[in-house]
Description:
Layout: H1 4-13, H2 15-22, E1 36-40, E2 43-46, E3 51-52, H3 54-67, E4 71-77, E5 82-87, H4 88-104, E6 112-116, H5 121-133, E7 136-139, H6 146-156, E8 160-164, E9 167-169, E10 172-174, H7 176-186, E11 193-197, E12 211-213, H8 214-220, E13 229-230, E14 234-240, E15 248-253, H9 255-267, E16 276-279, H10 286-298, E17 302-306, H11 318-326, E18 328-333, H12 335-344, E19 361-364, H13 371-381, E20 385-387, E21 399-400, E22 417-418, E23 423-427, E24 440-445, H14 460-468, E25 474-483, E26 489-494, E27 498-501, E28 504-507, H15 508-515, E29 521-531, E30 535-544, H16 553-564, E31 573-576, H17 590-597, H18 611-620
Helix pairs in contact: 1-2, 3-4, 3-5, 3-10, 4-5, 6-7, 9-10, 12-13
Amino acid sequence: xxxxxxxxxxxxxxxxxxxxxxxxxxxxxxxxxxxxxxxxxxxxxxxxxxxxxxxxxxxxxxxxxxxxxxxxxxxxxxxxxxxxxxxxxxxxxxxxxxxxxxxxxxxxxxxxxxxxxxxxxxxxxxxxxxxxxxxxxxxxxxxxxxxxxxxxxxxxxxxxxxxxxxxxxxxxxxxxxxxxxxxxxxxxxxxxxxxxxxxxxxxxxxxxxxxxxxxxxxxxxxxxxxxxxxxxxxxxxxxxxxxxxxxxxxxxxxxxxxxxxxxxxxxxxxxxxxxxxxxxxxxxxxxxxxxxxxxxxxxxxxxxxxxxxxxxxxxxxxxxxxxxxxxxxxxxxxxxxxxxxxxxxxxxxxxxxxxxxxxxxxxxxxxxxxxxxxxxxxxxxxxxxxxxxxxxxxxxxxxxxxxxxxxxxxxxxxxxxxxxxxxxxxxxxxxxxxxxxxxxxxxxxxxxxxxxxxxxxxxxxxxxxxxxxxxxxxxxxxxxxxxxxxxxxxxxxxxxxxxxxxxxxxxxxxxxxxxxxxxxxxxxxxxxxxxxxxxxxxxxxxxxxxxxxxxxxxxxxxxxxxxxxxxxxxxxxxxxxxxxxxxxxxxxxxxxxxxxxxxxxxxxxxxxxxxxxxxxxxxxxxx
Length: 623
Ligand code: COA
Ligand code: AMP
């Protein structure tokens, strides 16, 4: 085994050599001769002359190599009492026919397909089918409301939207189809067709001429051959929250993505082909894209698609049941899931009912892993609990403890060390590098490694402005943190207006835009406040218009956010305040508010217009 330092240093001193080696794990239709195109900084492209098909790498090549009978996808759905195993041969067959179906509806290479679906196999099959055609999928998380879906439809302009009649949350049925109909009605670029998976729990109405029934069309669809694409062609666009209400369309290319994910499976997660890997996330998030769908399949492992919750479906032993039943080797989830299990079963009594001896590692990401949760999981599971830090933008871990390279002693609260290709630097506001122990802005020297975003969808200028302009030559992660003297990275939280609620990334700016729509609201600010289970929860501070005395303000604002953004925003707290702290030029002091909400003793900024407003707010926020 090579030591971490050798591996990491090689990736920084000779990136082309390092990633050329890693690229050998991919089956190319045209192998790369050039590894990095750095002729147009700050835009970089990996494997610019290579060609491949991602679905061939995820499916066909494993069938050709004799893995056709191996489980590729295990669908386990406690909410519908369904379990089904798809072998690689079956998943390939379904994917090829789904690609044929999409092609018959007009989807070709480069066209976009929006996927708005619950955690059912058809969602994975559609993603892979798009990859097969060289079409670009854009999955929208099911917890988003019609307006958010419409914004994404208008930005990506899909030929087809694929949906299901419903999703099943423990306490209610989520009717996707009427939400899609509303979104299509709002959008300026409606799709030509909508494909609908009719589920038994709730069947929906169809729009004549536009909507087609998945099961009807799939029954007669002819399989489509894979279309080779350039390594630099987009595989998907995944929207994520920025600091404004307009989400950012993160672009993922085909070649760099396959290379990086394959590298990560062996080296970070210590997985072998045939092992069972379970990312308990949702296909609507980046963790679902990378580690439910693509990485395990690219690597010839078995992936688990779980349509349920950590608790309540039916009890806090649900995760341990799935591990025992399928022999899961790696579980990957968000700390919030562990916190919610711990809350319901603090003594981990449910663990005793299941044999989880197959489990070798628990990986967590999506939000900061607090030391209490780390210790509870370590003590009860008896396996390494590995924190790793990444973002939708990067698609795979920026920092981790690489179990397949070198296992470092774990320090609670740290995702350990930078991964290959990520030249992580902590910078002060004025651009100079912080010493170990000093906190600053976490940045990554360009170029970013393969698999990370090459740009934003149709928005090169926004990509530069959002990520590359603050510190020229560096990518700005938006997180603050520090290295310690052993080279361990500590990620302390966002330095912008992004918050993390139950591992779901939300923009406070987007919530503010909705609150401002209410006729009684003069101005507002939304901040993330600590939450015992979800890590953070959004809290709205609103100033009312003169004379406004709404009776049901809180419930109206809560309903408005749910209607406009969706249930996922989990917006429940509103405080009416007399004023918001501002600079003399009228800018709301959000950074100060964030600090107060996080419980820090914030200094009064010299630019403040009226310091007494800040003092009053400290009282409201319980300081
Ligand atoms: N489709 C539609 N609605 C959804 C949804 C989906 N896919 N996922 C969540 N929602 C709804 C929930 O039903 C809930 O609605 P409610 O207000 O009517 O109760 C709302 O969105 C908020 O959901 P969430 O914040 O997830 O809270 P929860 O109480 O339903 O569940 C956890 C809490 C901790 C169990 C859950 O967040 C979880 O399992 N998190 C794991 C972390 C994770 O998946 N992170 C992704 C990145 S790794
Ligand atoms: P997302 O794009 O939804 O994956 O969210 C990315 C953000 O989640 C990061 O910028 C961090 O703020 C936070 N995050 C993800 N993983 C971690 C981690 N391991 N530790 C601390 N914060 C994390």
